[in-house]
Prior knowledge:
The chain has 573 residues and is an alpha/beta fold. The protein contains 19 helices and 17 strands. α8 packs across α10 (323-339) and α8 crosses α14.
Amino acid sequence: MVNITIDGKKLQVEKDMTILEAARQANIKIPTLCFLKDINEIGACRMCVVEIKGARALQAACVYPVAEGLEIYTQSPNVREARKVTLELILSNHDKKCLTCVRNRNCELQTLSEELNINELRFEGESTDMPLDNFSPSIVRDPNKCILCRRCVSVCRNVQTVSVISAAERGFKSVISCAFDKSLADVPCTMCGQCISVCPVGALKERDDTGRVWEALADPELHVVVQTAPAVRVAIGEEFGLPIGSRVTGKMVSALSRLGFAKVFDTDTAADLTIMEEGTELLNRIRNGGKLPVITSCSPGWIKFCEHNYPEFLDNLSSCKSPHEMFGAVLKTYYAEKTGIDPAKIFVVSIMPCTAKKFEAQRPELSAAGFADVDVVLTTRELAKMIKEAGIDFNSLEDGQFDDPMGEATGAGVIFGATGGVMEAALRTVAEIVSGKSFDLVEYAAVRGIEGIKEATIEIGGMKVRAAVANGLGNARKLLDSIKAGEAQYDFVEIMACPGGCVNGGGQPIQPSSVRSWTDLRAERAKAIYREDESLTIRKSHENPIVQEMYEKYFGEPGSHKAHKVLHTHYVR
Ligand code: HC1
Ligand code: SF4
């Protein structure tokens, strides 16, 4: 411990803290802008400067370590003026079109301008009229709004190990861009959207597809159905001011009905179907000497990363489509037949916590009925915007129920939304298939939690399954490298592109650094996922009556020829 003083307050703090952390512990707020804990701690923007007695210059509190006897001033006239000038200089180069910005009222630059009482702009900057990069199916970059904080660069390089964006040029000409000024569409971007989640302003956003959905909803010829991913229900409440980790499944369903969707379905149902197919694939490969480990294929950011960086593992990937794509395919085949609706008139919208799913939905190979399985993917944020635009008072909605005939899902389906969930759901089913017995539900604690890589050997019916789970592409890289080097051997591997899994997907509500740095969003949202699992009566995929019915009436058995035609795919080398 060391003794320091901040604004005259004597404090005893741990010696490896920064001034920012020590001040926060004492409830003294120091403004920040580029800082994002564990991701971007570079002291670049100089918003958090403080005065230290005896030091020649002001120091950045986010990187300056505490030391015995430090006397720190966070609100001296020098500090206040320096912060204001810095902020005004940033604003002089920013387009300031707040009213039409996707981040209006959720922008760290806007908040800071209010908090620092910026009421005039003393500096005229360079004109900001750079072209947008809007060629990617998932991500739009607007350099006119970029404040060069480098959070996107850090998350892409250090967390995801993808490194497709970086700072280029110098001085006033500095920009964040891709190599040779290419579009994100033309570099090996995985479309994971983690860069959007950390952007403090509106310089990075998802492609807005809400217009296409409004149009479809207004078309009397179309049967417009919607499905929601497991992770959306534990995050969308944040868009309406509810605490992180609020579970609002029923309100979300009601809001979707109010928006005019003909049916509101749950992607969890298809997650159950995925488990039937993937579990069968795993057992077949183990028993018949197939390619091991089987690696999960639900996360399209991970698939793209694999195609670009680890093509040698493409044969390891499960051939299963991701659950929402399976659902789209089922809706345009089985459901179309069952209800007598022309599949060409069925318009499938997926609400996903993910930006890469926008890219995935466009893949030509995902089209079981001859046209795209899923027509439009909206992020959790885009759905919230539609709800607001429709004037729906989300928080006062009654709880609704997913629609039949496809509305039944299980706890196994819902846990897909958290890292380790696909693995756990698969184990719950595989254990019973292998042993031919029904067990009391087993919760596989070893594969839960937000550690980057988890490993477990699970014994089921006399068979040992060596399992590993990685979340975040940097961890996926480590795991794959260790398999490649022969240092580790597994039978079944789950990989999710986003740190923490889908709960922390690139399409989820954005929390500012002031919240995100000190609250683990991944853990809070995952807790809500596991609470939902516990609340459901059926918690094993193979016990889902709709899934059973689909096999009885349509697919025959898991892994059948028909199941392969509709529910499976291949990857691009
Ligand atoms: Fe996911 Fe999945 S869990 S990929 O994270 O397998 O996006 O939530 O919908 O498809 O079910 C996302 C979440 C989601 C799929 C499922
Ligand atoms: Fe990097 Fe993911 Fe952003 Fe692409 S979407 S630039 S891979 S962080």
